[in-house]
Amino acid sequence: MDKKEIKGYENLSHEQRTLVETVLTNLENGTGLWTPGWEQGVPVSGKTGKAYHGMNNLLLTLISMNRGYTDDRWYTFNQISNNGWKFKGKSKGQGVSIEFFELRDKETKQPFDESVLDGMSEEERSEYMDENVYPLKKYSTVFNADLIDGVPEKKRVERQEVEVYSRVDEFLKNWSEKEATIIYGGNAAFYRPSDDTIHLPEREKFRTEEDRVNTSLHEVGHSTGSKTRLNRDLTGTMGSEKYAIEELRAEFASMFIAQQMGVKMTERHLNNNSAYISDWAEVIKKEPSILIAAVADADKIMKYVLQKEKEFASGESISRGEEQQTKTPIKEEKSDVYMPPSEVAAKAVAFKREAIEGGGGIETLTRMSDRDVVERAMNGKGAEKFSQLYNGFSLLGSEEKDERSLMTRIAMYCSGGEEQAVRVYKSSKQYKEDKPNAYYLRLAQQAMEFVAKIKNGQTERKPVWETGSQRRFGRNAKV
Prior knowledge:
Number of helices: 17
Largest sheet: 4 strands, mixed
Number of domains: 3
Shape: globular
Strand content: 5-15%
Helix content: 40-55%
Low-confidence stretches: 267-275, 323-358, 464-479
Distance between the termini: 48 Å
Structural class: alpha/beta
Radius of gyration: 25 Å
Strand order of the largest sheet: 1-2-5-4
């Protein structure tokens, strides 16, 4: 695999590069996404027992498959050292870097104490979180338990296959009755959005029970894209990039759900992926952020499906007829991957996006390089002032000064020119939809020129809008 073929490779984080390289290597080697017969559980933190989600889950799962690990527990170096354990061999090159987000208090910059939310309503919690909390990206290197000498033997829960399949069949029965109708017959498996139906061959047509179950979960994944569920763009036609990406989404989702339900990977994944391998590889090379977004969407699909399963079991879920009368939008659970919703990711496939919905925050940014601009500014020099401006506060006495100050702070971290600066600016709450795009492009151009002067040592002064002077900032302004 030639890294030069991956567009924007230099803008990806180390963790994102590792995931992109691993997926592309598997695709180009002709092995597809999964190893047939794989039955490992969800990767978990060895210390807490909590499962990894989204990008971290996929990355650790793929590495486990490729390296042949049999244990799903992962530990940090400090956890290994503090327990007095040792590596069985050389540890160099065996660690896997993962990324996660820690919530921080905007005022204290310390880890957020969730106890302050006690007693608040859901609406009050949401409002408090939006106004007082921000996510901070952090990194950690973890090692698989197979590499460690002294780690306690894992307690394995033996589950009978009949128990696993019974669980899936009960779920499918409820999904058909209360969500998308499942119609059995024929030789093809597919989801039809127009009438919200899943079509599957009869049970005896499948080579194995694993094939049947994994195929069923894949199509359930597609059906979550309905407007009445997670509302994804399902208009892609076979052979299009949009279609291939939805297949990628559903494939990741079926793996995540299968992990949770105890179903192992089968040859079905290898054989059925072959039709999309070249499409997937091409799409990922063009825009690696689409892979990250697809993983985030798959994580949302998995959480949505498992939540529905709980509702089915508790009797909380209503019938399809009742639901059409009383349906209200389902609030998505935020993923620790911290990625945009699927409809935004789908628009990014065209690679021609000119603008985003204003004021939506970092979640509306689909390009990883744009997100990195915000994250670096949030954690760099003047982070507090940037955060306040980005979130719509007025600091400098006039709207124009606030706009120019924020644009300059964005420009300090931009490597993609004026267009990138405008994209990032439009995600802030300073953005006004009634102002033309040309206005913001002009602001960005002026800010980029000022930043270039600073970097070239031509000026050390603050821009005029932060000095109290009434002089205008522009190409010919004396600063």
